[in-house]
Amino acid sequence: MNDRVVITGLGLTCAIGGSADECFDNALAGKVGIKEVKSVEHSECYAHIGGEYNEFVTPEGEDRASALCIKAAKEAVADSGLDVSADPSRVSVVVGSCVGGAVSIEKFYRDYVADPDKASGEDVLKMPISAIANNVALEFGAQGAVDNVANACAAGTMSISIAADLIRSGKADAVIAGGSDPMSSLAFSGFHALHALDSEPCRPFNKSKGIALGEGAGILIVESYEHAKARGAKVYCEVLGSGVSSDAHHITAPAPDGEGMQAAMERSIANSGIKASDVDYINAHGTGTPLNDSSELGAMLRVFGDEGEVSCSTTKSMVGHCLGAAGSVEAVMCVKAIERGIVPPTAGYTDEDVTLMREKAGNFDFVPNKGKQRKVEYVQSNNYAFGGNNASIIYAKEGAPRKLAEPNGERVFVTGFGIVSPLGNTAEEYAANVNAGAAAKRCETCGDYVSSVGKEDFDAVGIKLNFYRKLDKLSQMTCVAGKRALANAGIEVTEDNARKIGIVAGTSDGPQTDIANFQKGIIANGTQTGSAFLFPNTVYNAAPGYFSIAAGVKGYNVTLSNGAASGIAAVAFGSRVLGTTQNDVILAIGADEDSETVHMLYEKTGAIAAGMTPGDGATVVVLERGSSVRARGAKVYAEVLGSGFAHCPTEFGKYGCAGKLKEAIDLALAESGVKAEDIGTVVTCANGVKSLTEAENEALAAFCKAKKVSVKDICGEGRAASSALSVAHAAMMLDGEIAGGEGEYALVLGASVGGSYNAVVLKKA
Q: Where are the alpha helices (DSSP H) in 169-248?
């Protein structure tokens, strides 16, 4: 285990500067970059301000989210001196985002509303969150794991945690990690619809009235200590442990008691092997909304007390809320605080405000208005998000004492499934239809493979009308599949085990239908008319968020988005999570929707003309560590032996080379201790597109004796749903529930446009 993970490079762009040093210097001085917004029309809105970085002009033909991210990444890579080309397969990219290519989304739908024929497929390829990390990888030639974290406002922090996990598990030497989000009409209108914006610069924990939106990108080079030292890199600090939790309370509001926030904070401290009293500085989430500030303050006081031994500030008071970039923007501030021995302030306090805060929070030190010099050895950074997602991480001065939680070394098993698919809405129905050779449900007008859930499904899993009426199709399918997965595995969620059951979700495209409907609504009627009903469903992590609420699951909760392979990536990452966190069970979800909107978008990109037939659905694979399986006496379908991933830097929208798919396969086989000739069944990733078929055929040359199976041949290209279904299908073949499986081992493949490939090896139980 490479337990020493360090930060060797920083890059930052936000409302108060275009570099890490400029931003930190301005933050220390309490400079507020929140001003009247120029990039979003807001004349009829009650709020008109936000934190933009107008000095940066998006290059022609690029999306702003990717452009901001690449700008910050160039600074970070140069600062670190990292030569990606020296060993590109050992350099990964993990980027968090909330709204992704929202500026391109607006452009596309403005063009589409004016004339559908003139709306550009090139703009469609800039819209998904999954494009951002791919574009960064293409810029620098990185060929390791490439992924995007889509946990809304907690995504930036989670990206750094995942980067550290990749390094500690030996899968990368260095990771370009962080987050990026632009100012957009989608986000501005959405928070306006929720009445969550402040008409004045936000004053978190002080005069909490609402948020001020910001934009920006923060990128950190996260690296193994040994790799950094071997190349003589400067080390800013170390990355210690992290904590992730779910509230299972409400899709947009935090739990009032702050219990989930507290759980994330306490887990990050415990996983770092330090005490709460060791923490010198907290960069709080501190949005400025009454509900968040109240919940967060209560949680911090319970964890740290009110004696003023820890300093706390929220830099959102100066840069605004940068959504998916917030955690990485704040991470750069935290690292600079350690480097310089000075913490940035919370802006906006008067002397009277300080007095009032002491009445509310005792001597808890919010560092009003100006930076404060002090010992800064351990720093905690906290972020919370729609869906009730909470993330906390600890940074420490190089060499500071700590004792990280060790990997538990347990085996990981598949113990259940939930399936919503064009071939049935339970695992049993799916298997029976596959065995019978039944035809899947298809759209009469477009030919797509379609899934559907209705009242009968909701009643069967105990989801009430007043809950499911809030859900879009993606969330409906996810909630039904998730609840059925728990039942299939024989798991009852209780107060005692809720924090030991987590979620790793994967989605390629997220809720594109609701995104389109929301965006078209404000194009037609104005920014001030955004739908408060639709907006919560426009974030990619809404579906797993709703599921956590429906099921009462309060453990780990991360949403990944990197194209069609996101479902199999959720299985691979979920298996690693079980080895390094307090969770006994991870529900690995792959979900994507089909609709008129989704079909149109894939027509625009040329994917349908190239041979792809869209599908949809939701598949939930229950992953469980061995000690939990034994304690429950659970049925086991298969064992997850290992995984591999590789990336061929290529233009987003195209598939990469066969050599990288083979590399992903070889890495998975090596980790599993299995040879190619041992594999009896291969579940393939080809989807009708000629270039992918050719790449897969070449990569599978050594598996000529293995049986080849494709779920996409029978259910269409359901993207993340299909790649997760491929894992479930393989496990059921190994168990005998689906006929025709051969051998003791199965290899499952996933491929995404942009050049990312994933492979997982399963063993018969």
A: 185-193, 225-230
Q: Can you tell me the distance from the alpha carbon of 95 to that of 85, in angstroms, rounded to the nearest whole number?
A: 20
CA contacts within 13 A on the Cβ side of 608: 15
Q: What pLDDT is attached to residue 362?
A: 83
- And the tokens for 579? 């080895």
What are the tokens at 543? Answer: 């579906």
Q: Who contacts 322 (Cβ-Cβ below 8 Å, separation ≥6)?
A: 14, 51, 156, 179, 181, 214, 215, 216, 218, 316, 329
| Helix/strand/coil (H/E/C) assignment for every residue in 675-729 | CHHHEEEEECCCCCCHHHHHHHHHHCHHHCCCEEECCHHHHCECCHHHHHHHHHH
Q: Enumerate residues 6+ apart whose C-beta is below 8 A from 79.
A: 8, 9, 10, 11, 20, 221
CB 13 within 8 A of CB 318: no
279, amino acid identity: V
Phi and psi based region of residue 224 (left: phi greater than 0; alpha: psi -120 to 50; beta: remaining):
beta
What are 6's strand-pairing partners? 223, 238
Q: Check whether 626 has a pLDDT greater than 70.
A: yes
Mean pLDDT score, 159-185: 97
Residue 464: its pLDDT value, please?
A: 94
CB 481 within 8 A of CB 724: no
The CA radius of gyration of the chain, in Å to the nearest whole number, is 24
* 527 φ, ψ (degrees, to nearest 5): -55, -35
In the chain, the percentage of residues whose pLDDT exceeds 70 is: 100
Kindly tell me if the per-residue pLDDT of 2 is higher than 80: no
Q: State residue 308's pLDDT score.
A: 76
Q: Is 740 left (phi over 0), alpha (psi -120 to 50) or beta?
A: left
Most distant pair of Cα atoms in the chain: their distance: 78
Residue 248 reports pLDDT greater than 90: yes
Judge contact between 530 and 192, C-beta under 8 A. yes
* Structure tokens that stand for 111 in this block: 């063009």
CA–CA distance from 353 to each of 157, 368, 398, 652 (Å)? 30, 9, 36, 50
- CA-based nearest residue to 523, from 511, 533, 531, 513: 531
Chain-centre distance for alpha carbon 393: 15
Give CA torsion, residues 94, 98, 101, 102, to 10 deg.
Answer: -170
Q: Residue 550 above 80 pLDDT?
A: yes
Catalytic residue numbers read 153, 285, 321
